[in-house]
Design brief:
Blueprint: H1 8-17, H2 27-68, H3 70-73, H4 77-122, H5 125-150, E1 174-182, E2 189-197, H6 204-210, E3 231-235, E4 240-245, H7 254-271, E5 275-280, E6 283-284, E7 286-287, E8 293-294, E9 296-298, E10 307-311, E11 321-325, H8 332-338, E12 358-362, E13 367-372, H9 382-397, E14 402-406, E15 412-413, E16 416-417, E17 422-423
Amino acid sequence: MKKQDWKDDHIEELLKQLPKITNHISKQDMYQQMMIFKEQKKRKRWLTPSVASAVAVLLLCILVPTMINFQDSAGSNIDDSEQENQLASNATQQKEVNDEITNDESNHTQENTEDIVKDEEVTPQEDIDQTDEIYAQNDQSEEANANANDNNEQPVTQQIEPTAVYAEDIKDQEEVLTYSIPDHNVQNFIPISVMVNKEADLSKMELFINHMSDLKEAEWGLGELNPFNADFHYDTSNQVLAVDFPAATNISSSSQSEAIKEILTDMMADFNIEKIDLLTDGEQGLEMGNEGFTEEIDQVDTSNKSAYYFYYPNEEWTTPFLVPFREKINSVTDAFAAMKKGIETYNLKASIPNDIDFETEVVSDEQLLITFEDDADIKNDEETLYTIEAILLTAKEFEYNEVKLENTEIDQIGRFDLEKEIQVPVAPNKRDLP
């Protein structure tokens, strides 16, 4: 290409040929833009060295102390590093656990909320009524306990029950029947008392005979009342009881004959029977082993008074039978003294513990006063309750109707109010029939 010869006049001519350019920006606006551009360039030039200086100072602050303490901390750098790593790891694990717990609580709360909403949507009116009833019962229970606390009383607890039958136990249309049932060794005869409904056309003796088959001797840990399946017939007009034994009856031992006589004698005493006729298959008389051929049993003297002891059929038995031991005792005071010893040969346990001492005073023909020693161990428990019952039954043997207990340090044993006279039982060893 040919090189252009750029002379001034030629250049001027070319410039004139260029299109005309018009600038609509005022001089003032152009000046402001120039000043802004100039200021920005100054800031950029200032910021770069400032940042560099700041970084340098920060590095110095970090490096200088490290360099100064380098040799002192050289031995512990590894331990510190491990500790920092462990702390970081623990922090991470704790954070994960917290996140998990938070998520579980959130999910559980959401589920509970959904269940509550669902229950509220489908709860029938009967469930609402039942819930209101439960709330009402709880309110009554809380109110009862609150009243007890206001009166300085303890909440009501389950009452320990006595073993005997008392007057307040018997309903208007009930009759108490007491059966003398032998133990398995035919040594002791345990009085068992049951309550049955009266029947207008039957006497008490007839009720007694009718309910003999309802007794649960095996369940009570005792022997049989009627092991020979004899039939009993009572003539109310002359008060004679006829006992008819099967033809195959074989009474070969003295214990068997004694058991029959004992059971029948107790029946005579309880029902004022004048005479008991013994029969074998409808014929007069019964062969009774060592007793020989016997046709009847007449009334015997039953005036001997008895002391009551504890009898347990086996070692697992926790509630005792209260059993009278048939021996002559002159006074109720002697009877109480005997009850502290027990009778080992008859498997009868002492019914008054050695740590319970008392004085006995006859107040009247009907009432005994028993004053316990200061160190007597009187408690509101089952063992003490059974001892009190043995005392009451023994007092009844000597024809006292009530007993007053003094110096007990407590005012209640089971149902017995010790601030008042206690009525003797109606009959011992209460049991239920099916």
